[in-house]
Structure formats: C-alpha cells, structure tokens
Amino acid sequence: MADNDRALFWSNNAGEQKEGEGGSEDGSDKGHGFFGKVKGFIKENIGFGKPTAHVSGFHLPSITLDQADVVVDVMVTNPNPIPIPLVDINYVMESNGRKLASGTIPDAGTLRAHGSETLNIKTRIIYKDIKETYHDIHPGEVIPYKVKVELVVDVPVFGRLTLPLEKTGEIPVPYKPEVDVDHVEFNQLSAEESSATLHLKVGNRNKFKLGIRELEYSFGLAGTPVASTRLSKSSTIEEQGVGSLEIPISFRPKDLGSAMWGIICGKGAGYSMAGKLEVDTPFGPMHLPFSKEGGKTILKRKAGSRAMDANEVI
Predict the structure, then answer these.
(1) Strands, DSSP E only, in the chain?
(2) Whole-angstrom Cα distance, residue 188 to residue 190?
(3) What 3-state class would DSSP assign to 157?
(4) Which of 111, 143, 244, 303 is most buried (CB neighbours < 10 A)?
(5) Model confidence over 130-160: pLDDT tens digits?
(6) Rounded to whole angstroms, how far apart are CA atoms 114 and 51?
(7) What is the mean pLDDT of residues 209-218?
(8) Rounded to whole angstroms, what are the CA distances from 107 to 20, 66, 161?
(9) 0.85 exceeded by the pTM?
(10) Chain centre distance of CA 271
(11) Would strands 98-111 and 84-95 be described as parallel, antiparallel, or unpaired?
C-alpha cells in the first residue's frame, strides 16, 4: 500500500464499525451446519487466517511551541493467499482519559498477500487547543499519552474484523526559551571594525533537558542592527535550569553614531534580539523561537583590549 493511500486526513470523527457486519471478533465461526463446515474446510485446506498487527514505533518528527506532529507505526501481517482490503483505520490519542486528537482514514488500501508491511498513521496535536480545553495542562510539562488504533479489515471466510491496538508513553508540552543578553564583551575596538562577544543566558523552564545544536539570531544594539547569522552550537541546559552561550559578533562603531559614546563611557546600551534555537530533547528535535525587545545590557571591555577614544567614532 502506498504511503499516500494512508496519509492522514485530520478529522475529529472517529469511524465506527457497524453492528452486524462480518464475523466474530476472535475470527471463529460458532455456527453449525453446511456453511460452517465449508468455512472450516477453507480455513484448513486453503490457508485463510486472521491478520495480525502490533505498534512498532511512535515518533514526534516535528515539535514547535504551537504543535507536535505524531507518527504511529503499525506492523500488519496478512497470512492469506490473496490481498485483503483495509477498510478503515480509526485512532484516538488521549491523556488521562482526555482526548488530544482523533480521526479516521477510510478506505485505507489493501494488504498484500502473504506479506508484512508498516502503516504510518499520522496525526497532529495543537497545543493551543489542549491548553484552552484542559486548564490544568501547562507549558513545560510532560504528560502521559495513550494511543488507541483500530484496523478494520475484510477477510474472506472470516468477514469484517477489527484489530485493536494500544500504545502508551509520554509527550512534552514545550515552554518557550528565555534568552537574555547578560553582557557584551568587546574584544577589539576601532573606528572601522570592532569585534565583541555576546554572553547569552538561556533559561529552560521545561521539565526535560534541551540539547542546543544550532542558533539562528539577529541582534540590534542602540536601535541599530549589528549582527544576523546562523551558528552551530553545542550546549546542554538541564531541565528547569539556566545555561550560557558565547556568540562572536563584529560591527562598525560608526554605524552606531552618538550611541557609541555612551557605550565607551560604560553606560550600557539598549538591545533587541530575535531568533530560534534548534534543540534535541528526549522526545525528538524541537524548533523553539525566542525574542527580546527593549532590553538593556552592560558592555565590558576585555582585559588587554585597547580603549577607543570618542573622537575616533565621530
């Protein structure tokens, strides 16, 4: 079955099997007489059997502050000599009995004869909907989940069968990182080109570790854009902890105009910063944006660096 045949249509209406359709849940025929004997003969001599299935994986390929994409892998084995229709896939994902997502994939394709294959059942959790519906679920928490999946198949001789599956675990409700500039340390000061190091504080209010691997940012000083780039960084911030990052920047002091005089005199300067962190977590990679407006930072001169006179700036 092609992956496109199983692409999830976001739906809040889980399908239900109609009463009276197909055989019994255990695949047995409790009837007697001629028809029961025929079915028994076919099962024993032609080799028809009940398909089997199990959850082989659970993934969160993408997590942001707004949503999490979920993929449930289901391995299905068809022991029969002919392909059989996969009528419906019904699923519901819940936490402590509260529904997080649900849906149905109708007419989900065909399972090939004498084969096994993995079905990728995709859904999406919208954090805003969860927080607005369940007020006791807060950002930064890790909550339990249970995924229930029903595969409805139509097998010759057995009829329509439902294969129920379950998977449990934990998922995060992420909290945005708190990124502040602790101070700016100037390494080299000259009228044409100056270099400095941004010393950042990164607060992690989540109840799980963040492994920073990439930082994308833009930084403005005294109302003037100073730096904008993407850097690979490696740092681990413990759960509900604070970490630090050192970011090199370079700029032209003349671009800051008269504000540079205040910086030279040690009065500090206002700054703005925006960007995103690419982090690894126990649940998979996350994309966490951040922003800071109207902040003010202390500017320090690195020991051994030459002090610049204000006349060099003007």
Answers:
(1) 52-63, 67-78, 84-95, 98-111, 115-126, 142-155, 159-172, 178-188, 194-203, 210-221, 224-237, 242-251, 269-281, 284-301
(2) 7
(3) coil
(4) 111
(5) 988 998 899 999 999 999 999 999 988 778 9
(6) 10
(7) 92
(8) 19, 31, 14
(9) no
(10) 31
(11) antiparallel
Angle formed at CA 104 by CA 101 and CA 109, multiple of 5 degrees: 140
* Spatial separation of the C-alpha atoms in residues 102 and 148, rounded to whole Å: 9
What residues have CB less than 8 Å from 257, skipping those under 6 apart?
224
- What burial letters (b/e) apply to 218-228, b meaning 16+ CB within 10 Å? ebbbbeeebbe
Residue 264: the pLDDT is 60
* Residue 254 CB neighbours (<10 A): 14
The answer to whether the beta carbons of residues 294 and 272 sit under 8 Å apart is: yes
273 neighbors 295 (Cβ within 8 angstroms): yes
Q: Are 61 and 125 in contact (CB under 8 A)?
A: no
All structural domains of the chain with their residue ranges = 3-172, 178-312
Closest to 175 (Cα-Cα) out of 289, 61, 65: 65
Other beta carbons less than 10 A from residue 10's beta carbon: 11
With cut-offs at 50, 70 and 90, classify the pLDDT of residue 43.
Answer: low
Helix (H, G, I), strand (E, B) or coil at 224: strand
pLDDT, residue 156, reads: 81
Pick the CATH number of 178-312 from 2.60.40.1820, 3.40.718.10, 3.40.50.300, 3.30.1360.200: 2.60.40.1820
Rounded CA gap, 298 and 177, in Å?
22
pLDDT tens, residue by residue, 118-128: 999 999 999 99
- Report the relative pairing of strands 210-221 and 224-237 from DSSP bridges: antiparallel
Same fold, 3-172 and 178-312: yes
